[in-house]
Amino acid sequence: MSSEGLVDVVKEAKKASLWLAQVRRLTKDDALRAAAREILLRKEEILRANTIEIANAEELMGKGKITPAIIDRLKLDQYKIGDIAKMIEEVASLDDPVGKPIIAMKLDEGMELFKTTVPFGVIAAIFESRPDALPQIAALCIKAGNAVLLKGGSEAQETNRMLFKIMRQALASKGIPEGAMWLLEGRQVIADLVKMEGLVDLIIPRGSNDFVRFIQDNTRIPVLGHSEGICHIYVDAAYPKRTTEIIVDARVQYPAACNSMKALLLDSRIGPKMVEYIATKLVEKGVVIKGCPKTAEILRAQKIPVMDANESDWSTEYLDLVLPVKIVNGVDEAIAHINRYSSKHTDAILTMDKNVAKHFLRMVDSSSVMLNISTRFADGYRYGIGAEVGISTNKIHARGPVGLEGLVTTKYILLGSGQKVSEYVGKGAKAFIHKRIIGNWESRME
Amino acid sequence: MSSEGLVDVVKEAKKASLWLAQVRRLTKDDALRAAAREILLRKEEILRANTIEIANAEELMGKGKITPAIIDRLKLDQYKIGDIAKMIEEVASLDDPVGKPIIAMKLDEGMELFKTTVPFGVIAAIFESRPDALPQIAALCIKAGNAVLLKGGSEAQETNRMLFKIMRQALASKGIPEGAMWLLEGRQVIADLVKMEGLVDLIIPRGSNDFVRFIQDNTRIPVLGHSEGICHIYVDAAYPKRTTEIIVDARVQYPAACNSMKALLLDSRIGPKMVEYIATKLVEKGVVIKGCPKTAEILRAQKIPVMDANESDWSTEYLDLVLPVKIVNGVDEAIAHINRYSSKHTDAILTMDKNVAKHFLRMVDSSSVMLNISTRFADGYRYGIGAEVGISTNKIHARGPVGLEGLVTTKYILLGSGQKVSEYVGKGAKAFIHKRIIGNWESRME
Predict the structure, then answer these.
(1) Are residues B302 and B157 in the same domain?
(2) Where in the sequence is the domain holding B235, given as residue range(s)?
(3) At the N or C end, where does chain B have fewer CB atoms within 10 A?
(4) For position A10, what pLDDT does the model report?
(5) What is the C-alpha to C-alpha distance for residues B227 and B114, in angstroms, rounded to an integer?
(6) Do A247 and A196 have their domain in common?
(7) Which of B22, B228, B395 to mutate to test the interface with A (most CBs of A within 10 A)?
(8) Can you tell me the distance from the alpha carbon of A11 to that of A20, in angstroms, rounded to the nearest whole number?
(9) What are the angstrom distances between the C-alpha of B118 and each of A366, B23, B293, B443?
């Protein structure tokens, strides 16, 4: 798509977004349910498109351009299509994030102030090659009253085109304008999108750290995303078996997940036997341990395999079975290490001591802090906030797992009856009342 | 201050901020009240410092480097010092923005999730030369549990130093660490600050549009601020006298304010007589009208002074008595004009027609939208949210007038009892409960 063509598309999306912002919940939910139904009904078409995709991918794999893992991820079957339809229905069932009252206040007689949630407008989402990414992001954006520009990976092009076509038609059949949803293709699109400040209201990049970082560094449009997941577990003192199981879960269950444990801190008072026990269980699962000098000494004495950790290991996000391990003296050293090296995604403490736990949970400056549980629980679905747009390590706007609430902003609405500021300043100025009231601005206009 | 010196300061501030994050409300409020008392008690010292300042400024004025308006703004007297003390006490009386429960949910037996507000950490504020700016920003930041780096204008250096010294001593006397508050001086400091991603958590720039824009363009640290206030009033149809009074108030009462009306849209159906009447009243107040062709034609026919508006007038923020005026056909043309040219700060409609009003309030994509009232009401104090950090035209984080709620972020706290994610996936997986509960995480730890 040419840059000019893209500007036209974004303007159309903006127009649709203003319309969508004032649509009632029922219309949006009906449209999403229709999309879910159509995806089920037209699953043969989707599977055919996916078959072409897989054939193309296998050809690329023959040329060494694609790994078998990517092909696995691209592949759809009827069960996965069923899951996609179910996910869209779940989004339809979520509370409407738009129009939530935040402030309702009488400022003076005949002067009422309201603050309410409103959609962002136009959201550009750039996402990885997973066939459920497009319907998930599109459903969440539409539910939150936004128009959405969808840019998926070229490997998933055929399937994305088909899913997009079916969803857009289904939404349109229930009155959602076609301009509310666009599929973008081609690499140039990203370079153009990041420049569209004032037209695009939010960018959601998903993918590698480097990619997210690239987007953040090259745009003035707000970005919702996280670049790294350097998550820690600090073991203060807890039952050996449960502690070790949690550690193994956090490192091994899904090594490449952003919320998996990337470094382990062991308090020196747990003693060498416990260090050996934990290490043995990790090594059994194929984990390569990179130890600080003390850890390395303890493990080498017992002939447990260990490499020497160097400074850069503490700030590296290992997405495979590698684990830097450090022995620290006390919770404060652990907190200092985490606040220095953590990507502020998720960090956990394992302890039976409530005071130590409290101190850790308060002092660690991360989006999720946890007690006696695996870091892998940091996730929108597990947190019960519904489908997840992503996990934010930003401190502004949404922080941590982000659901629908991250796709809306707020707006003040002031209803007056002819007041001038000059009546409220200087001698004999009128005073404000500032009294909380009940209700929303629209009910005042009936 | 050298760049290395600044890094040390910011690290000290970070340390203090972690401590401050867990301080109870009473400590913070006591400390702020002590600061207010000390400012009153030591007013002679403050006035002496201010006298030196004014003498320096008058010397610069002699050299043409400073305007009389700046000297007026710099000048303190005992009443203004009284207002500063009162403002700090008011901040002490506000609700604590830290520790507010946002989510409390049982995910499963022995697994509870909480989301709560927490301070940002270290806030860097760069502000204009008004003697109340430093105590206001410092009080708000400390109340919200943040350490604050204060950088004022060099013209206000003497007064700022004295206010800073008194506040810091008073806060320290009530147990707030000295590291929580720093005064920075010198131009180089700004260039260094914007690079301190990961150390500084939020930048609040106040000042000219160009300055705010410069900060936004040169940092990856979140910025809370607004650059422009191109605010509109659209007159659909309303009583001539009240309408005109609101228009005059919005343009004339404080022309340089960010929330003053910068362009006026008149619906064609209000008729030429009304256009003439509004224009006459504005001209009487010294306003220079720049009219669209239709406006110019109507006014010239009656010999009312008018200049021709050109395209750039619609996107220019006139901070003096200049007013571009355009005649539009219907509310949709007004909405389209505003969504195109507004800086999305504050836009108002004057009308008696509730349906037209509703449509306007919904469709205009600005941080404050208003009905039958002057745009000048867009202000934290008038909105009843307490002292104002600034007005944000960002859509992420805080939008509109920003008080204490803009100085905190959120954190998830997950309290587990040994759970692993592997128990919740695959065959025989445990299910989540996701049930809202009452309480906060700290009460669970007692």
Answers:
(1) no
(2) 231-385
(3) C
(4) 95
(5) 36
(6) no
(7) B395
(8) 14
(9) 11, 11, 54, 17
pLDDT one-digit tens code per residue, B384-442: 877 777 788 787 777 888 888 889 998 999 999 999 999 998 888 899 999 999 988 98
Q: Which two tokens stand for residue A369?
A: 């802090």
Interface contact flag, B249 A420, Cβ < 8 Å: yes
Nearest CA in chain A to B432: A382
Of B259, B262, B255, the residue nearest B285 (C-alpha): B255
Are A220 and B220 inside 8 Å of each other by CB? no
Contact B420 A249 (CB under 8 A): yes
Residue A310: give its domain's CATH number. 3.40.309.10
What residues of chain B score a pLDDT lower than 50? none
Interface confidence (ipTM) of the complex = 0.86
Q: Judge whether B75 and B54 are in contact, CB under 8 Å.
A: yes
Cross-chain Cβ contact A418/B382 below 8 Å:
no
Residues from chain A contacting residue B384 (CB–CB below 8 Å): 105, 107, 113, 432, 434
- Whose tokens are 């502020």? That residue is A344
What is the per-residue pLDDT for A213?
84
Q: Say yes or no for a CB contact (<8 Å) between A367 and B107.
A: no
| Region for residue B287 given its phi and psi (left: phi exceeds 0; alpha: psi -120 to 50; beta: otherwise) | beta
Using a CB-CB distance cutoff of 8 angstroms, which residues of chain B are in contact with residue A224?
Answer: 396
Cβ contacts of B254 on chain A, cutoff 8 Å = 421
Cross-chain residue pair A368–B413, CB shorter than 8 Å? yes
Question: So what's the pLDDT on residue B330?
Answer: 97
Record the tokens describing residue B85, joined without a space. 């003390």
Candidates B371, B422, B432; nearest CB to A416: B371
* Minimal C-alpha gap between A62 and chain B (Å): 32
d(CA B177, CA A396): 26
Q: What is d(CA A406, CA A388) in angstroms, rounded to the nearest whole number?
A: 10
Percent of chain A with pLDDT over 90: 70
Q: Which residues of B touch A202 (CB under 8 A)?
A: 395-396
Q: What is the pLDDT of residue B230?
A: 94
**In chain A, which residues have pLDDT < 50?**
none
Tell me which chain B residue has its CA closest to the CA of residue A238.
Answer: B418
pLDDT in tens, A318-342: 989 999 999 999 999 999 999 999 9
Asked if residue B209 and residue B76 are part of one domain, the reply reads: yes
Count of structural domains, chain B = 2
pTM of the predicted protein model: 0.86
Query: Same domain, yes or no, for A88 and A207?
Result: yes
Specify the amino acid at residue A115. K
A255 shares its domain with A194: no
What was the pLDDT predicted at A414? 94
